[in-house]
Amino acid sequence: MHDLVTQGHTARKRFGQNFLQDQNVIANIVRAINPEADDNIVEIGPGLAALTTPVSEKVNKLHVIELDRDLAKRLRENPFLAPKLEIHEADALKFDFSTLGTKENPVRVFGNLPYNISTPLMIHLFSQSSVIKDMHFMLQKEVVTRLAAAPDSKEYGRLSLITQYYCKVIPIMEVKPGAFRPAPKVTSAVVRLVPYDKKPYEVKDIRKLEQVLALAFNQRRKTIHNSLRGFISDEELLSLGINPQLRAENITLQQYCCLADMLLDKNIDETV
Questions:
Q1: Which backbone phi and psi does 184 adopt, to 5 degrees?
Q2: For the residues of 8-34, what is the DSSP string, one character each?
Q3: What is the pLDDT of residue 107?
Q4: What is the pLDDT of residues 119-167, one digit of tens each?
Q5: Whole-number mean pLDDT of the chain?
Q6: Helix axes 158-166, 141-148, angle to 10 degrees
Q7: At what angle do helices 253-262 and 206-218 cross, to 10 degrees?
Q8: Hey, which bits of the chain come out as E strands?
Q9: Helix, strand, coil % (nearest 5) of the chain?
Q10: DSSP states along 199-245
C-alpha cells in the first residue's frame, strides 16, 4: 500500500499512521475520556487533530507528543489549537512523563496509538504509572482482548499479566476499519487503563516477575514443571497452591507474583 494523502498530509507507513475520521466515533471517545477544564492531560500522536480538537475545547491546556515534524508544524500553525497546546516534538517511547505530572498532580494520557509501537509504549507508560491517573487508547481489538484476558484463555499471556499488575483494564468500544483513513486491515478498540493507587499484588522486584513470565510463556504449551525446571521444585510450586502440571495460561497473577518473590535470589537472567 502506498502512503495516502489525507487533508494535505501524507500518512506515513513507517510511523504506522491511520487517521481517525468518523465523527460519531470521535464523539464517543471524547465522551469516554471525559476531559475537564483543569485536567493535566497529554495526547500521544495527535496526528491530524481528530481527537485533539474536541478535547482542547474542553480543557485549559493540552500537552501533545508528536514525532512527525510536519504534523507538529501543522499544530503549531493552527490558529484555533495553538493557544491551548504545548507541543513536545519527541518519541513517546522515550518520553519522561514525570516532566509533566507528579503523584499529586498526575497526567491523563490518551491517543490513537500506532499499532507497531503500542505494546512497548504501554510497557514504557506502566513503568511511570505513579504519575499517571488514567489512559485511554485506541488499539487493535486483539491487543485490547489480550490486555483484558483472564486465566485459562489463549489470549492470556505476558501482556495481560503485566498490564493487570499495574492497571485496572476496562474495554470501552469497538471501532471498525472504515472509521480511519487509510483504513487498517483490522478492527480497533478503545480501552481505559487505570493505574492502581495500591496494587492488589505487589512484587519485590518487577524485573523478576518479567523474567518468570518470559520463562513460563516462551513455550506456553509446556507445563510449569518443565518451563521452570531447575529453578523451583514441585514441592515449592505446591506450597504456593500451583499444580506443577498446569500450563502458563492456567496460573493467576497472584500466583506469578508469589513465584517471582520465591525466585528473587535465583539468577534466571541468562535464560530469558
A1: -70, 170
A2: TEEEPGGGT--EE--HHHHHHHHHHH-
A3: 98
A4: 999 999 999 999 999 999 999 999 999 999 999 999 999 999 999 999 9
A5: 91
A6: 70
A7: 110
A8: 4-6, 9-11, 19-20, 41-44, 62-65, 85-88, 107-112, 132-140, 167-175, 180-181, 188-195
A9: 35, 20, 40
A10: -SS--S-HHHHHHHHHHHHHTTTSBHHHHTTTTS-HHHHHHTT--TT
